[in-house]
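Quarterly update from the structural biology core.
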Amino acid sequence: MMDFDKFKKINDERPNYGEIEDADVVTFYKNSGCGDGYRIFLKIKQEGDKKIIQNATFTTTGCGFSITALAMGLEWIKGKTLEEAEKISVEDIETLFEFPERRKNYPQSAVEAIQKAINEYKIGKKTNYITKNRILQKLKEQGHLRNEHLQQAMLDNLDLSGVDFSGANLQNAFLQNSNLVGANFQNANLRGAYLNMANLKNANFQNADLRFAKLIGAQIEGANFQDAWYDIGTRVDPKQIDIFKVMKKAEKGLVEIQTY
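Predicted structure, tokenized:
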């Protein structure tokens, strides 16, 4: 039987949640089952001939089960060598929290996300990820975020009203619950971005790439979606489907869309 008190405590306290400014690897993983996005940060140090995971954190758009699985998975790998950590299993995570049978897919997804991060570190894959603090500092200094590389950026729960994001790469960015009233996303890459519950009133999405973007619960009154791209993965509330009338449907493999 699931320990509901522990489940609530983990979700209230969110251990291992957040960004690492000087992470050695930052990876993005998408749960193919529910569409949740996971981001894993690893800080690794050399100790003799071994590489040890000094710190590990995550961010996610997912539910309480995602949070619990990631929090416990990262807790398990901290202090271990890369070789030990990449062998993590669902059973290892469940030594810290036992999931109900119908929710075993969440620790499995956490295992896959952690292994992806370790593999990307081992092959030397570079990331263009920029932390929230650096993004906000850049916005303060230059007054806009035009044409910036903001892939996977964590910009949830912020007041970004009126900000100019035109031409920016916001692929897989987290913008949930943020105030984006009057923001300019013209020609921006928002493919796979999470805009759930965001205030998008009077925002400009003209010619933006919204393939696989999530706008569930978003306020879109007065927003301009003229000629923005959408596909089968673009999610809006049923009452908002009229926006597709002014948008352009992208077929698989379409080459007209600008890539970043």
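Helices lie at 4-13, 64-77, 82-85, 90-93, 105-122, 132-142.
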